[in-house]
Amino acid sequence: CSRPQKVCLCPFLPVHPLKVSTCLYIIQHPAEESRVLRTVPLLAACLPPDKCKILVGRRFSEERYPELATVCRNPNTLILYPGAEATNLEEVAVMPSSPSVMIIIDGTWSQAKDIFYKNSLFRLPKQVQLKPSISSQYVIRTQPTNACLSTLECAAVALSIMEKNKSLQETILHPLQALCSFQLQHGAQIHHSKEHLLKNGLYDKPMPKNKRKLRRMELLVNNVKI
C-alpha cells in the first residue's frame, strides 16, 4: 500500500488480486495524483494489473490514445457517469451479453464533468449510473451529497453488480474502512456531506457570491438532483 508501517493497509487488502472478468479504465484528473488520501491506489491493489488501467489527464484524443478509442467504440463498454441519459447499471448487467469493460472518471464532480463533456470519446460508450442506495463510507472527505461515492466505492458497487458477486463489494471496501479508521484515530474528523451541513444549519463557511454556485447550494438544500 506504500504507507508508513503504523498505518499500513496491506493486512486489509486481499491476499491475492481478485478474480474478475470486468476490466476497469480509471480516467484520473491530474489533481488527484497529489491527494494524500486518494482511493484509486487501494482499488488498483485489489485487482490484477490488467483489470485496472489508470490513465491520467484532462484531454483524451483518438490520436494520442488509440487503445482507449478502441475501448470506447466497443459496444460492450460502459461509462459510469450519472445523468438524464444514464441507465441504471442493474438493468444493463442482467442482459445476456454482459459488458466486460467499464470507464470511471476519478476527480471532483466539477473535474469529472469537465473531462466527460470535453472528450467526445467518453460519449461513445453506453452511459450508466448507480442507484443511490448506499451512503459513502469515505467519511474523512467532504462529499457534495449523502449519495456521492468515492471512486473506489463506485468501482466496488459496480463490480459486484457486473460480476454478480456481492462479496466483491465488501472485500474492496475493507481497506477504505481501515483507512478512515486510521485517520480518525490520528485526529481526523468525520466529514458530513455539504448537503447534510446545509440542511442542518451547520455549514460554517461564507456562502459563495457566485450566483451559479449559490444556486447549486439551494438545489442541495431542496433535494433537487444536480
TrEMBL record:
EC number(s) recorded for this UniProt protein: 2.5.1.25
Keyword Cell membrane: no
Gene Ontology molecular functions: tRNA-uridine aminocarboxypropyltransferase activity
UniProt enzyme class: transferase
A Pfam short name: DTW
Gene Ontology biological-process entries: tRNA processing
Transmembrane segments: none
Catalyzed reactions: a uridine in tRNA + S-adenosyl-L-methionine = a 3-[(3S)-3-amino-3-carboxypropyl]uridine in tRNA + S-methyl-5'-thioadenosine + H(+)
Domain (DTW): residue spans on this chain: 1-188
Family recorded in the similarity comment: Belongs to the TDD superfamily. DTWD2 family.
Name of the protein in its database record: tRNA-uridine aminocarboxypropyltransferase
